[in-house]
Design a protein that fits this description.
The chain is α+β, with helices and mostly antiparallel strands. Helices cover 28% and strands 25% of the residues. A hairpin with a 5-residue loop joins β8 and β9. It is found in: Cell inner membrane.
Length: 183
């Protein structure tokens, strides 16, 4: 008689592998949705933090501080953004300005829509020395909604006339309307 060896038979190994593949097949779509939800949540929090930084620095410096998209036209928030103290008053980051923060591009698949009182490009968010929303180089209030979209999820950052920002989710929060997803 040969001694029996400890281990798995080929049939047992195939059954366990088949069950693992089935469970993985069920879990992968949920992991994708979880990843997309986390990406949009992180992007919203990063942008919300940049807006908060701009407002705080505008008050501390008693000068205009701007958050602006990093693309050349100043319209695509998915390419990242720059927070800067606008020392020369031209509304764009330059050699005379102090760069306070720079954020890189958002994950692939995230899109953005900008709906403020002044719809003309460039799209920016500016604060004056009193911490109020304003136009670059102007005292007029500028308020509205910056919306982020990813895989069916939507997050919005709403800035009121006084410059106070709040992040919201239209599925959970009241008064969280904004621009439609770009096509």
């Amino acid at each position: 008689m040969r001694p029996r060896r400890a281990g798995f038979s080929l049939a047992e190994l195939l059954i366990v592998t088949a069950i693992a593949a089935l469970l993985l097949g069920v879990a992968v779509p949920d992991l994708g949705a979880l990843l997309r939800a986390q990406q949009i949540r992180t992007a919203t929090n990063d942008l919300f933090g940049a807006i908060g930084l701009a407002r705080a620095q505008a008050i501390a410096r008693n000068r205009t501080v701007i958050v602006m998209p990093r693309d050349a036209a100043g319209v695509d928030w998915t390419q990242g953004w720059t927070v800067f103290a606008d020392r020369d008053g031209d509304g764009v980051p330059g050699a005379a300005d102090e760069i306070l923060a720079v954020h890189g591009a958002l994950p692939a698949g995230v899109t953005a829509a900008f709906a403020f009182t002044s719809p003309a490009a460039p799209y920016y968010i500016a604060y004056n020395g009193a911490g109020r929303s304003c136009g670059a180089g102007a005292g007029t209030a500028r308020w509205g909604t910056l919306s982020l979209f990813h895989g069916g999820a939507v997050r919005r950052i709403k800035i009121n006339m006084l410059g106070r920002a709040r992040a919201c989710d239209p599925e959970r929060d009241d008064h969280c309307d904004g621009a439609a997803a770009p096509s």
